[in-house]
Amino acid sequence: MFWHKKSTLSVEDLELGKLCQAEAEQLYRSGKYHCAEAVLEVARRHFAAELPESIVGTVSGFGGGSSSGCICGAVSGGTVALGLIVADKKETTRLTKELHTWFKEKYGVTCCKIIRQNHKGVCPKLTGEVAGKIAEMLGRK
Fold it and tell me: Is this structure's pTM higher than 0.85?
């Protein structure tokens, strides 16, 4: 699980991002995965397939803003995925900050409760978008 940064995205990387986005949204809509689980599962499948599927259970408590309505579960799942896949702690921190900045620019906040109040029914789409962003970031390796 060693990750090396590259500066540009290829067409294949962009297509992988779209594929990951669609897969995560589909997993969420299936009802078998919530936001954090769907994002982590898609990242696992495409970037760390050697990890057991059971690893997805480690983020089960993050759905619905960790049941308190706070931080978005998709963002939490994405953060965990970055930590599992990126070997360098400083790079993981930098990418996590990039994810949070991107998300805040898109939705205004990372608070699940506020997002669901202001953007009714957005969770499946948002889950897919986060998975796509994770794939895009990891695709720059």
Answer: yes
Residue 38 in this model has a pLDDT that exceeds 60: yes
Domain locations in the chain as residue ranges:
11-139
Report the Cα 24 to chain-centroid distance in Å.
9
Angle between helices 11-30 and 35-47 (to 10 degrees): 140
Distance CA 23, CA 28 (A): 9
Cβ pair 23, 45 in contact under 8 A: yes
